[in-house]
Amino acid sequence: MNVLIDTIPENIVKNLILSLGLVLATAAGAFALDVSWPPARQKESEFTGRKLETFQHGSRQEWGYAEAQKDTFLVLHPTKEIKSNAPLYVVLHSAGHDVHSCLACTTKVGNHDIYHAPQDFFALYVDCKANKGDWWWSINKYPGPEVSPPEKRVIDTVKWVVKQYGIDENRVYLCGNSMGGSGTLGIGMRHGDVFAAIKANVPAEVKHVSSRMYFPPQTVPTNITLPDPPIVVDYSAPNDGWSRGHDGFIKAMNDRKYALFMYWGPFGHANNHQEIMKVNDLINSFDWLNVKKNESYPVFTDASTNDTHPWPNQLTDKKAGQINAFFRWKDVSDTADSVETSLFLVKPTELKTTFTIPAEATADVTLRRLQMLKIAPATTVRWRYGKSTGEATADATGCVTIPKLKITAEPTSLVISKLK
Length: 420
Description:
Layout: H1 2-6, H2 10-34, E1 40-47, E2 50-57, E3 71-76, E4 88-92, H3 99-104, E5 122-126, H4 149-164, E6 172-177, H5 179-190, E7 197-201, H6 207-212, E8 231-236, H7 246-255, E9 260-264, H8 273-277, E10 297-301, E11 321-323, E12 327-334, E13 338-345, E14 360-368, E15 380-385, E16 388-393, E17 401-408, E18 412-418
């Protein structure tokens, strides 16, 4: 070997040594990125009568961070021990908080109520303040449609907690306030394979979700397949400057046949549910924490009972409003040949509200998250709704929409089946 090296010119030897050094340094750097994963528990304590664990971790190479990071997250346990299949409540904090001050808000009712995890849930609180590029849940540094390193971190953290604590993976929910609401929409909608439903309290803009979901003027690339998104609950105020852009968001959700429960009114950039409900008492009327990822759900679009939203030209309007607030459903069956869902309106005896609950509504209905029935794009299927029947053709994503169904408080079954 020495004889061979001696025959190589000195400058080439130096270059070879330098190249080898760079390779080894890169490999060492890649290894260093992974040494702090899985997360390490730093502390165990008690918080509001519930077990609280504090975890720290570094960066995984596959997240794509330019430099190694150090992050903290908190896991809050249910008040009573649940050995397996507990639901998980994931919280994204606002710009005024970090992960610790976010959790501290939950000691007082009315202080960022969306942060308050139900007593029988595990709760995960993650951070985006410690590292500069993570700020605003990454949309400022990573404005393109690609899923960013901070988002990959959040998703991997959620998946780790799900596995570590035996969480029911079909009952994982994401929520946030303000900046966290922006992150909830942007991260949550792109990951319908992780979250059953998401809820955003006064999201501070909708550019995150618009970017990640390829909303107009973008289009979804032909090589990208987006999973059916979670059901979305959004309550925003037209007199809150952060709500700008909701006109485009609402239209994109409707045109794409994505499930949206939307509430608004002049409650500003508020986070106290009691105060918000003085303006719009519907914000907590839909039971989003009982949506399950392994069950199909209907999407209601172009409903006759929807109020006209105030964005962008009626921002001083004092009237509260809603989109799809009164629709409910119950899954009946989902097989390889057909799916059946019962559709109905909530009854006045079931919901106390200042809004007038309609006796009937007309809406286009699309079924998503079908579990067994697989419908290929452009496939024709048969449908039955009450005494009405017909045929419909799936769109380019395999979704079937039945137009102008009349929905009342009396449950009526919608059946979609393959042609025989």
